[in-house]
Design a protein that fits this description.
Length: about 150
């Protein structure tokens, strides 16, 4: 009897070139040792973002991401209570069983690739929709209005 020691078929399907390029960008930005580690970070962070993002921003971002990344983002049902940037990282760390520092690193690495696909205008719209604390995760300064 021949058995497949590689696991489920879904893990054997080749990724699109666009998704491969996204993984390479995340791998480079995050200094991940393997593409699999970069893929794990992308899936974790985009699933988390999918639970936070709604409306036109969600649709527009999904349209600009590689298909595999868009599927991860849109497969999530948005939470009714949005999380601040810090709570977002804490939630991801808890789900993964990782440290806050590692999860913050993963988030920044993935969001740097998201910025490249989305462009500055869409990122600005996304940041206006999300609660405070996300700008730094996307590599931007967090500007608070003067009191």
């Amino acid at each position: 009897m021949i058995t497949d020691v590689h696991g489920p078929l879904e893990h054997q399907q080749p990724y699109s070139t666009a998704y491969e390029q996204m993984l390479e960008k995340v791998r480079y930005e995050g200094a991940y040792p393997t593409r699999e580690k970069a893929d794990e970070a992308v899936r974790l962070v985009l699933a988390g973002l999918g639970r936070q993002l709604t409306g036109d921003e969600r649709v527009d971002l999904a349209a600009r991401l590689p298909l595999e990344a868009a599927r991860v983002l849109t497969a999530q049902i948005p939470d009714t209570q949005p999380l601040t940037g810090w709570a977002f990282v804490k939630d991801l760390a808890t789900r993964r069983g990782a440290s806050m520092a590692t999860t913050r690193w993963d988030t920044g690495s993935v969001f740097s690739a998201v910025v490249a696909y989305a462009g500055p205008d869409l990122i600005t719209r996304i940041l206006h929709q999300l609660p405070s604390g996300y700008a730094l995760l996307f590599g931007r300064a967090e500007l608070n209005p003067a009191a």
